[in-house]
Amino acid sequence: VCESFMTGRIDRHNRATHGLRPMNIVESSTGYERWLADRIPLLATDLKKKHELMAQDEFSFFRATFYRWAQVWPMVCDEAASAPVALAIGDLHVENFGTWRDAEGRLVWGINDFDEACNMPYTCDLVRLATSALLAIAAGHLKLSAGDASQSILDGYTEALHRGGEPTVLSGKHSALRTMAVERLKDPKAFWDKLESIATLRSKIPGRAAKALHRAIPEGASEVRVLHRVSGLGSLGRRRFVAIASWRGAYVAREAKELAESAWYWAHPPKGKAAKRMTAVHYEEVLRRAIRCPDPFVELRDPWIVRRLAPDCSRIELSSLPSKHDANRLLRAMGWETANVHLGSISAKKLQADLKARPKDWLKSNAEAMLRETKKDWMTWRRAQKVSK
Known about the structure:
The protein has helices at residues 12-18, 25-37, 44-56, 58-64, 66-76, 123-138, 146-163, 175-181, 188-196, 207-216, 263-267, 273-277, 283-289, 327-342, 348-356, 362-384, and strands at residues 85-88, 97-101, 107-111, 118-121, 168-169, 222-228, 240-247, 250-258, 299-301, 304-309, 314-315. The protein is an alpha+beta fold. The chain has a five-stranded antiparallel beta sheet with strand order 6-7-8-10-9, sandwiched between helices. Strands 5-3-2-11 form a four-stranded antiparallel beta sheet. Strand 7 and strand 8 (250-258) form a beta hairpin. Helix 3 (44-56) packs across helix 4 (58-64) and helix 6 runs antiparallel to helix 14 (327-342).
């Protein structure tokens, strides 16, 4: 689809010259799922649920379709796509942030998922994050203007570049962010009740996943059950297993999720020497290189990513934010954390020079352009799914 991709840019002139017809969202989804199924087993029931959730609302559709973004963004935002390449998150959005405990037991806030991490123009992350913020504003989850949302993200990003980045440990100086992040921790019982209600999986799970979960559960744990967890949107359809057990008076849980190459490689398959250098999965690399307080429970057991699940170690949903929250501060922190990741692979000086050359409202205008494309794709998807208004 994106056959003329070069350092983050689509040559639209070539597309017009050769009369190449862009895929629609239905063709795109079919093509991507076929590509992914050649790499890892997919679960038909979970894919069906994903398709249904994609039709429910625009934000769910957006979260589920990074593969489509990877196709469309370089064509719609070709100037932004000419930016320097960094090891980036890819599937970045306002609900791809959460908390975990570091080796010192401190509560850390940051990006929660790197399934689609890949080398791509750094601007991809910023535009996608800003677009997701506009969708969240439209849905009533964030209360601020489109201009303020984009500016807050950019302010946090540029400040982090200026200061060389720093992990977001939720201690005294991040009290406002901590208040927003820990709202969901007030009722941990709801978290465990939800996990405990999932039926025990009766069939065997893949050997590597079973071994990884066994190693991750604390020694001496009892009543160990393995579950098939249906969660997320972008990764819905992949195999995902959870071991839940009783240990010293309370529950513990570990998850193993199957990884595959980023959808960016589907939209922009590397050729020649680049293909030979391509790393199939960048999850571990981005964790290692980012400016970050690591989660000591995260471990890559190829092709499985294993991590601890707990109320204080999970993604933060917008619906769990307190009714009164500082959306500007939240988005600023998201921009800062995005820079923390990019600084693992590219210098602040290079990023600052590129940002300085861009028009003042470049992020807002690009996010609004991608918002229009997302809305059009969502309506096409709903019609294909025969969903009535």
